[in-house]
Design a protein that fits this description.
Elements: E1 14-15, E2 22-23, E3 25-32, E4 35-42
Antiparallel strand pairs: 1-2, 3-4
Length: 69
């Protein structure tokens, strides 16, 4: 019969409009009829040779920050 598994590979893959290298997807929220729904958008370009390059900030996604010492 049917499968309960979700296909995550079918999600649209985003590319940089300048250099055409793949970029990560970012999830944003959009409010529709009083409910927040997810919207997948392209993230910043991390290719240092690209004109649209955005360097990764230190501690942007740090798992060690906080009082969990």
């Amino acid at each position: 019969m049917g499968s309960n598994e979700h296909e995550t590979e079918t999600r649209a893959r985003h590319v940089c409009p300048v250099c055409k290298h793949p970029v990560v997807s970012e999830i944003k929220r959009h409010k529709s009829l009083g409910v927040f729904v997810p919207v997948w958008r392209p993230g910043p370009c991390r290719n240092p040779e690209c004109a649209a390059y955005v360097p990764e900030a230190d501690g942007e996604h740090s798992e060690t920050s906080g009082p969990h010492a």
